User: Fold this.
Amino acid sequence: MAEKKPNIALVDDDPKILELTAKYLRDQNLNVFVADSGSALDDIVNANSIDLIVLDLMMPEESGLNLCQRYRAKNINVPIIMLTAKGDEVDRIVGLEMGADDYLPKPFSPRELLARINAIIRRQTTLGANTPKQIIRFGSFEFDTENRSLSNEGKNISITAGEFDLLKVFTDHAKQPLSRDRIMQLAKGKELDVFDRSIDVQISRIRRLIEDNPNKPKYLQTKWGYGYIFDPDGEPQ
Assistant:
């Protein structure tokens, strides 16, 4: 049986970028749905099983940030790669805060975009195929690695693909101090850029999900001068 091609939604209001990028990705064995607006993306997502969205930040009708925030608020947790203006760190950080899983500055190489797409899909496929049935409990939380879910006292908590992957890294390495470089390698399979704050931003997002007081975390703690450490017992390190 032929392997199922991943379904990718590519959203950009620039027809040239849509045409060239879609052709390249299709040549690399991906199914690509193109949209030039948020409403067009809504139609695609409602009619198809989408595995990943590549979303331009700057669009005239509805910005990529608003789209991302709207989807996360509706518990649409499809992985999102945000396309941002080159060198604009503020947009990247805000995009991650809104729920994006990764970002790529424009102008971008289609080969680099393909690598980012494949890395995210590969992580999800590998986790789905190889992760044993396991529920990790800490405090009143249950982290189900098979069903990719997080709950607190039986109530489901919306968690994005990027948040899940990062929390999985920490639960797999509980009580082990992890540097930002190591976290990036384990979670995303790439090196940490010296100016990259994405790990810190996503950790802040996870803390808002699992901590009573994100400013005084007891589970996902800062290891000063080194990185972070996850303690399922919630004990000071």
